Amino acid sequence: MKRTFTIGQMSKLNNISVKTLRYYDDIGLFVPYEVDEQTGYRYYSIEQFKKLDMITFLKNMGVPLREIKRKVEHSTVDEFIEVLAEYKQKNEELIEDLTRMNRLLHQKISELESSKDHRVRNQTNVDFYPERSIIEVRGRFGKLDDVEEVLRTLKKQVSAKSPIMVGTVGMVVEQADVFKSESVDYSAVFITLDENQEESHDKRKVLEEGFYAASYVKAQESRSPEVYQRILESIENAGWKPDGPFLVRTIVESFISHKEEEHTREIQMKVKQ
Question: PANTHER family given for it (predicted)?
Answer without folding.
Answer: MERR-FAMILY TRANSCRIPTIONAL REGULATOR, REDOX-CYCLING DRUG-SENSING TRANSCRIPTIONAL ACTIVATOR SOXR
